[in-house]
Amino acid sequence: MPLTQPTFVQTDTAIPLTIVPVDTCADWLASLDAPAQVWAEASGFTGKIGQALIVPDTDGAVQTAAVGYGTEAERKRGRFHVSAALPKLPAGRYALNSDLPVNTLEAEALGWLLSSYRFDRYSAQNPSHAQLAAPHGIDAARIEAIAAGEALTRDLINTPASDMGPPDLEAAARQVADAFGATMSVTTGDDLLTDNFPMIHAVGRAADRAPRLIDMTWGDAGPKLTLVGKGVCFDTGGLNLKPGASMGLMKKDMGGAAAVLGLARMIMALKLPLQLRVLIPAVENSVSANAFRPQDILTSRKGLTVEINNTDAEGRLVLADALALADEDTPDLLVSMATLTGAARVAVGPDLAPYYVDDLQLVTALEQAAEAVADPVWRMPFHAPYETMIEPGIADLDNAPKGGFAGSITAALFLRRFVTETPRYMHFDIYGWQPSEAPARAKGGVGQGTRALLASLPDALKL
């Protein structure tokens, strides 16, 4: 699939576009010439978020424009506020006029690029005709690289399982690897058993499209960063079949894989001085005569045995084998990302990316970065007293503890059992889906936590 490339336009002439908060709107209006003031007042422009003002010249062409930036209290309730007004701007090339801090201006410029995203693989979509010249003072190449990585994540999630099965996810990963000179190997089908990835094989063996483990590496110097993404391309629930309503969005169950591929693309495009590894267990959780069953006991790559009490808790199984492989290399930082539990959505809703980590230095780096780049995250606890909930007695671990309590925490604790040699491990239980249209975020697949992670890496890995 083609890699989407949202970019700033190159232009010597652009329509000046002023960002106008409510509290300075009166002063800005007073700075206009008399005809423009009359026009603005007749248009009812007050600087509210989502408002756009177009001021024509005597020939009817756009002379200048403004977008509302609301109040400080309103801005705290959302992000990408400039983008809220983009649908109201006519076609043209615009240049932002603002004294916003550079990091805020970069976030708004990124929001503009993300607003141009369209998923048009199956049907033509109306393009965005309001284009942006790179604002002065920002790192335009960095913002473009981040936008391209986010667009890749969205494309992968939005593509239905008919065209995004394990072979297609492999092809998408290979395209990214080839674009940046990364090396990639893939273990497929029964070779998973030969190479000791038994739980990836068990989960994916019932599907017509063979399960596989994708292993991408890039960079030969610097600290080691390993990203592991859940690549369940469709999740029926297996023999514990999901009801139809719960199966409707399961094309997004490879959202963790999409997220780490998008993040990897950002890292490689920006040429960060590190050694990157990306591991993606790509499977379909299907129903067939050879599907794994409730009450089965699987032996993992780590040697830990796992009792299957629900075949719909399969994501942690495939991640476990991939994490065990990652742990053997003892990277400086190991991160897993997965659309893992409904419990996380109940806890924090669709907009926050909950994460688990014990290293307080990583917490500080991530949360400062998340605020700076408008990519909200929320720390959850690796609560040790709940460890007994994932110990069934008949095996080392239970993949689906009974009772329904603390489902996201017990899933995170389960994954942590497979990371024993790597001191710094972080897990994200993301949603990967925007349920309704929002500024810079079309309804559909979306990246979560990746921009915050990217911005935190200099502090987290001392780059």
UniProtKB/TrEMBL annotation:
GO terms for biological process: proteolysis. GO terms for cellular component: cytoplasm. The keyword Transferase does not apply. Its EC number is 3.4.11.1. SUPFAM superfamilies: Macro domain-like, Zn-dependent exopeptidases. PROSITE patterns: CYTOSOL_AP (PS00631). Pfam families: Peptidase_M17, Peptidase_M17_N_1. The keyword Protease applies. PANTHER family: LEUCINE AMINOPEPTIDASE-RELATED, PEPTIDASE B. Belongs to the peptidase M17 family. This is Putative cytosol aminopeptidase. It comes from Pseudosulfitobacter pseudonitzschiae. The lineage of its organism: Bacteria, Pseudomonadati, Pseudomonadota, Alphaproteobacteria, Rhodobacterales.
